[in-house]
Amino acid sequence: MSHTKLIIAGDLFPMPCNYDAFSAGDIKTLFGEKLCALFASADFRICNFEGCFTDHDTPAEKAGPNIKAPVRTLHAIKSLGIDYATLGNTHSMDYGPQGFSDTCRALDANGIGWFGWGENASSRRNSVTLTHQNRRITLYNTTEQLENKPDEDQPGVNLYDEYRVCEELKALKQSCDTLIVLYHGGIENSHFHSNVMCRRFHRMADSGADVVISQHTHAVGSQEHYHNAYLLYGQGNFCFHFRKDVTPLLAEGLVLELDITKEGLTVRPHRILRTTLGCIYDEEQDLKDFYERSKTHDMLLNGDKEASDLFNKAYNRDIQQWARLFFYAFRGKNPADDEQKKRLNEAEYVRYLKHAYSKQQILAMQMFLCSEEFNEIGTRLIANLLKEYETEEQ
């Protein structure tokens, strides 16, 4: 029986700790024998490149980290056999238009296809179609919005816009046998996802997607079999050593093996474990927690209150990690905050920031975040203010 095998990995990007191994093409040291064999067994191999491949050193101005790697580090990625990579992510514009063009040239020179990104808002390469054994498999990439929005004279990603994305998926499904969506979004460092994300995945599946995979979260989430589609809410990292401290969330990831035959599609998750320089295949394949979360998710969708309470409690716990950054960002310049930061421990400082606002201020923040009208007003006001800063700097 003819079949097509795809291997889909999560976030992959060289970091200073493993630049030498990547540059030397040392995939056995980086990934181990068994993981290399798994990749070699596939007809196509896909991953997400979480950064820019450039030798230039001018980062874009942004609040978060700017991630890049030397072009020479593509040696190991090519040796591993990566055929296609998604570039629609939250770090693709970390080094501006120069980083964009450098990355595209480097991937093209190494024979690695890419999608989810484009030179401007009108020329994005949102998808790629693979042909094998007389079957057509389309890969589609879309991402949440950060500092990556394209314009008519600015490169950027394929931002998720529900109406447009779902219409594009419907059209693509008409001309392919299998449609796979690689979605870059979700809550970072959390096993759990929001109701918004669940509805979003269901709509993409209803629009023709056979598989929808969430990357970006840096944590393994849960899976769902929705009608005839396979949904994965959080694939975790493949090889992304951005943080030196290895938390339980960062210690594992999933590599998906997709086997496509005329009878249909089967998906097998493989658990991988982080090492000092890379990642290896988990010989025990301990997926108990993953399947337990997936069971809880299914019970939640079926109206089980206990499962809903458990899921929401864990979700609320995980998003607390963002409390300090969130409340600090809304404070503006405040010398008193800096003094308190020196005096208080982490938990006390977060508590201080939370209670530094009046209830009326918190209600105003909620209005700007939750109201579609005020969300757009706030976004535009901030964009205009940033332009003022740029003018003053010139």
Would you write up a description of this structure?
With 394 residues, the protein is of the alpha/beta class. It folds into 2 domains: 4-302, Purple Acid Phosphatase, chain A, domain 2 (4-Layer Sandwich), CATH 3.60.21; 321-393, no CATH class. 39% of the residues lie in helices and 26% in strands. The termini are far apart. The mean pLDDT is 92.
> Roughly how many Å is the radius of gyration?
22 Å
Helix % is: 25-40%
- Which sheet architecture does the biggest sheet show? 8 strands, mixed
Mean pLDDT across residues: 92
SS-based structural class? Answer: alpha/beta
Count the E strands: 19
What's the CATH H-level superfamily name of the largest domain? Metallo-dependent phosphatases
Query: What does the oligomeric state look like here?
Result: single chain
The shape is: globular
Q: Low-confidence stretches at least 5 residues in length (pLDDT < 50)?
A: none
- The CATH topology of the largest domain is Purple Acid Phosphatase, chain A, domain 2
CATH architecture descriptor name of the largest domain:
4-Layer Sandwich
Strand fraction equals 25-35%
Tell me, what is the CATH class of the largest domain? Alpha Beta
Distance between the termini: 65 Å
The total domain count is 2
Number of helices: 13
